[in-house]
Every structure is written in structure tokens, then in C-alpha cells.
Amino acid sequence: MPNNILTSTPPSFTSTQGQYLAFLYAYTKLNRRPPAEADFRDFFEVSAPSVHQMILTLERSGFIHRTPGAARSIALLLAPESLPLLR
After folding, report:
1. CATH number of the 15-78 domain
2. Which runs of consecutive H residues, i.e. helices, occur in 1-87?
3. pTM for this predicted structure
């Protein structure tokens, strides 16, 4: 599992990716468990395939880690301070 928390360079993500990451952080903090893909879909009002592709992109980029086949297993690999405010 990659760990970007200790890197000294700031993460480079798009505005949309930043919003997904900020949502992941806020949802997990409030609910004490990570969101399901349906939670992302409902919040961002996008299609299920769009959410799934974004999750795969965030994972490939090393911003999150997830356990395939395990529900609500998305873990943020960035320091909260590096995330934008959730809009």
C-alpha cells in the first residue's frame, strides 16, 4: 500500500479529484466509516460509472487505497491539510 503522507511535495490533483478526496475525508470523519460509491454518486449527482472511474483514477494516482471486493474500504493516503475545502 503506497503512503503519500510522508512525501514533501504537495499532491497534484485536479479540482474534481480534490473534491472527491475532500468528500472522502469529511464523510469518513463524520460517519466513522468511508463512503460507499453510492454516497459519492448521491453527493456529486453523477452516474455510478463516473464515480467508479474516479475511484480507479484516484487509486492509480496513489491518493487512495481500497480493498477490491470489500465494501467501504477506501482509505485516504494524503494528509488532510493538503485537501481543498469541500464545496
Report:
1. 1.10.10.10
2. 15-31, 37-44, 48-60
3. 0.87
